Amino acid sequence: MAGCFMTNFLNYHDRIGFDPEKFFKDTLFQSSRLLVGINCLEPGQIQHPHTHTDQDKFYFVIEGLGEFTVGEQTKEEGAGSVIWAAAGVHHGVTNTGDQPLVLLVGLAPAPRS
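RESULT FIELD:
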């Protein structure tokens, strides 16, 4: 099985990072069918609404608090929440808390290289 990972087991704490200029992203696992990554946003940072025309996406909130927009809906969600955006639906997130926002993110199918 081809993929861009060294192991089948990771701890997200080893892969988080922060950048004061823009939100941080890192790919954890990737195959032709799925990409799983980590997104980290400092308080106030934004992933502007965007669309993946042929990919479904989920966010799983690991740590922090964020305001998520999916289509016409906007809702504040915290640790333990799962947010789903079907292919073609605008989605984005803003860290509305006073702590870092750490998200597990999945895209299917994975982006083409």
